[in-house]
Every structure is written in C-alpha cells, then in structure tokens.
Amino acid sequence: GIYNEPSATISEWMNVVNSNEAEENINALREGYRRMEGSLPKLEDLQGAAQGLMRLQDVYHLHVEGLVRGHFQRITDGNAIDIYKPPVSDTLSGDDCFLVGKVGHTVLFLVYKMNLNIIYMVHFNVEKYEKLLDESPPVTNQSLDLKRPDSTYLRTRNVYEKLCQTKSSQPKHFENPRLFCDSFTNGNPGLLLQPIKRELISLHPYVVLFHSFVTRAEAKSIREYAVPGVSAFMWKHTELDIAWLKESAHGVVGKVDRRITMVTGLNVQPPYAEYLQVVNYGIGGHYEPHSDHVTSDSSPLYRLKTGNRVAMFMIYLTLDHKNSLKSLGYICSNSQKYIVWNGALFWWNLHINGQGNVDTLHAGCPVIVGDKWVANKWVHEYGQEFQRHCSLNPEE
C-alpha cells in the first residue's frame, strides 16, 4: 500500500492536467495574453526608451551617475544640481545600463561606417592632405578643448541646447513697452461677449500667445480622437506620434477651426489650410530646430497648389502643469517660451512679400517627465489674399 500511493497521486495529477477545466484555463490565459499583447512593450519600445535617455543626457548634459540612480542632475561648479526631482526615483539595473550602452554603440557604429566611407574617399587625395599637414604649424598647446566644427547647423544646435538648459530669456513687459497683454476681439462679433486673452510675446518675429484658447474638455476630446491615429504606446516614442483630424469626423475640430479664424481672420478650411495635426511626444520626445515654411520649389507641399505655409497656429493640449521643459525655442532670436497648458501660439512664417522669415526657426525641447500633446494648424498662402494684404514696400 505504501508503494501504491505515489502511483495514485501521479495518476490523479495527470487527470487534473489533462482535464477539460485545465484546458479551458490555458485557453483563457492565451486569449488574455492576445488581448494584452498590443499594450505590452516590444523590443523596439525598449530601444526607443534607451535612445530617449541618451538624448536627455546629451541635450541637458545630465550627470550620468545621477541618471542611473533616477535623478536628473547637472554638474555645476563641482556640485550636482537637480533640474527635475521625481517623487519616486527608479534606479537603472545593470541590464538597463547595458541596453542603453548597446543602443549607443549601434549609433556610434553607424557613424563609424560613415567615417570609413569618408576615409575611402580621402584616400584618393592623400598627397593633397599630406601637403596641407606639412604647411600647417605644429600644435604645441596640449590643453586645447575639443569643440564642434563651426558649421551653421552645429551653431544652431548649440543655441538650441542652451535654450533647453536655461530658463526663459523672454524680455519682461516692463523691459519692452511694445509688448503687451489685452482682451482681444479682432473685430469679430463672436468674440464680443467673451474676448480672447492675447499676449504679444515677440515683435521680431511676430509671435502671439492666446491664453485659454481651448477648454480642458476640448483638449481631452482632441487627444482622445487622435489616439487611434497614433501608436498604441503613447508613453514610449522618443520622436513623436502624429495623427491628422478632419472637421467632418470630429465636431470639436470644426469648433477649434472656427475659433482660429475668429482670432486670426484667416481661412483655415482645406485646401487653404492643412488638417489639424495632433502630435504626441513621449520619453525624450523632441523636435530639432526647423522652419515650417518650405524653401524648395520641388517640395511635395506645392503639390497641394495652395502656396507656402504662410502662418502657424499651435495649441498646447497637455494638462500636466509639471511636465518639464515643454517649451518652443526660437533659435535666431535666442528666446524661449513656456506654453501654458491650454494656450495657443500664432506666428507668421513668411514676410508680407512672400519670402521665408528665418527668425521663425524653432524647436521643441526633449520631454523629461510625462508626455506632451500639441495640435498644429498650418495655414497656406492661397485663400488669405484679402486677409493679409500686400505691402507697397517690396522689402517687407
């Protein structure tokens, strides 16, 4: 009897394993996993998060040791200064650090391959470069600091990083009396009972901030409408996720379009303007310095046959006031503006004569915490002939 007990137990266990109830549980587990699979991070999401951390460290010059411990710090005069202190700090494990290093190594390997191509081309000019080296004076100072090459792009990059690292340098109203705040109706009957709060924040380039342009409910609706059009991983992308919303599909979009027309006087209905673009920025999400107007006649934008992007209207949809460094930096004018959560920025991309305004070069700083939602409305030249008149001065 003693030796028969184990056999009976094993037999009972096999009956349980092969029972209909066990099979139903396994199928339910598989079905549950299939439903959740779309919301679980994949390898590309993990690599994107690693790239986001690398970007944050690079742009904000974060202290690597502090970043590993979950602290966003910069070394100033030998001391670690917090630029953002999360309520809970998550420490990176050894595997996490290895992954970040592995992703970084892959990027460096691509740069290395590019350099190999350059070396291959230089091989055919060896004599020329040897002659230049002979004619160059010897370098005697061994303490020279390594600096970026003096190119236009890298000079812009330096200013961009400086703007992201420092607080706003926007002049105060008392420093420039031509900057002002007021209650604005634009002569539109729809704004007489409830004028919009307008703040002129820059003259060159001309930039206006409209406070409380959308309500909390409208911002939430626009974000929800955009979700099916962007990635399911709203938190993970290091670059950005984009969706385009049409007025015909979403009533709140039409309401926002009409409000843009009231405050600007511009025709924002397609084809004279593009559909509302909704953008989500995740970990390290950013936008490099760029201009919205096109500079080449071969641009696909001209296939619309509605001219260049004459103006830009950008609405900030994020409700989190503590979302760090969600600014729009104007590179040429060396200024930075922190956008209020339901406000909107408006500026002209083109001069009155139709030439591009280089002072509208702008960028989005990498997001340190949370995520960022922005809605963009690009207005084109055609359709605005009676809204923005030509000047008698061809230089304007």
UniProtKB/TrEMBL annotation:
<keyword id="KW-0256">Endoplasmic reticulum</keyword>
<keyword id="KW-0479">Metal-binding</keyword>
<keyword id="KW-0408">Iron</keyword>
<dbReference type="InterPro" id="IPR005123">
    <property type="entry name" value="Oxoglu/Fe-dep_dioxygenase_dom"/>
</dbReference>
<dbReference type="InterPro" id="IPR011990">
    <property type="entry name" value="TPR-like_helical_dom_sf"/>
</dbReference>
<comment type="function">
    <text>Catalyzes the post-translational formation of 4-hydroxyproline in -Xaa-Pro-Gly- sequences in collagens and other proteins.</text>
</comment>
<feature type="domain" description="Fe2OG dioxygenase">
    <location>
        <begin position="272"/>
        <end position="381"/>
    </location>
</feature>
<dbReference type="InterPro" id="IPR045054">
    <property type="entry name" value="P4HA-like"/>
</dbReference>
<dbReference type="GO" id="GO:0004656">
    <property type="term" value="F:procollagen-proline 4-dioxygenase activity"/>
</dbReference>
<dbReference type="InterPro" id="IPR044862">
    <property type="entry name" value="Pro_4_hyd_alph_FE2OG_OXY"/>
</dbReference>
<keyword id="KW-0223">Dioxygenase</keyword>
<protein>
    <recommendedName>
        <fullName>procollagen-proline 4-dioxygenase</fullName>
        <ecNumber>1.14.11.2</ecNumber>
    </recommendedName>
</protein>
<dbReference type="GO" id="GO:0005506">
    <property type="term" value="F:iron ion binding"/>
</dbReference>
<keyword id="KW-0325">Glycoprotein</keyword>
<dbReference type="GO" id="GO:0031418">
    <property type="term" value="F:L-ascorbic acid binding"/>
</dbReference>
<keyword id="KW-0560">Oxidoreductase</keyword>
<comment type="similarity">
    <text>Belongs to the P4HA family.</text>
</comment>
<dbReference type="Pfam" id="PF08336">
    <property type="entry name" value="P4Ha_N"/>
</dbReference>
<keyword id="KW-0847">Vitamin C</keyword>
<dbReference type="GO" id="GO:0005788">
    <property type="term" value="C:endoplasmic reticulum lumen"/>
</dbReference>
<keyword id="KW-0802">TPR repeat</keyword>
<dbReference type="Pfam" id="PF13640">
    <property type="entry name" value="2OG-FeII_Oxy_3"/>
</dbReference>
<dbReference type="InterPro" id="IPR013547">
    <property type="entry name" value="P4H_N"/>
</dbReference>
<dbReference type="InterPro" id="IPR006620">
    <property type="entry name" value="Pro_4_hyd_alph"/>
</dbReference>
